[in-house]
Amino acid sequence: MPTLICPTVEEYMETRHPLFGRLKLTRGIALLVSGSDVIEDQYPAQEDLGDYDFVYMGGHIHTITAAEAATLTAAGYGAYIT
Fold first, then answer.
1. Torsion angle of alpha carbons 7, 75, 50, 28, nearest 10°?
2. C-alpha to C-alpha distance for 52 and 82, rounded to whole angstroms
């Protein structure tokens, strides 16, 4: 079965502290699938997750089906599938 590792983004901490302001954090980006449309959302609202066919939360490794892999590859996320 294929495996999906969601995309990530690196952010600096928002602080005025001179040391913590240099700290980079890696944050996962959720992929929300509705039909053949895929939406990236860094902070999805829990009450909206039921509106999508599939939800892949960022920062996790997901085991997906071949059909899900085909949908994500067609949407341009094939590089995140192994």
1. 0
2. 23
Q: What is the pTM of this model?
A: 0.86
CA atoms of 35 and 54, how far apart (whole Å): 9
| Distance, first Cα to last Cα, the chain | 9
pLDDT in tens, 12-23: 888 888 888 889
- Total number of residues shown for the chain: 82
Nearest-angstrom CA–CA distance, 52 and 30: 12
Tokens of 48: 């909206």
- Indicate the domain borders of the chain: 3-80
Q: What is the pLDDT of residues 9-61, one digit of tens each?
A: 999 888 888 888 889 999 999 999 999 999 999 999 999 999 999 999 999 99
Q: Within the chain, how many helices (H) and strands (E) appear?
A: 1, 7
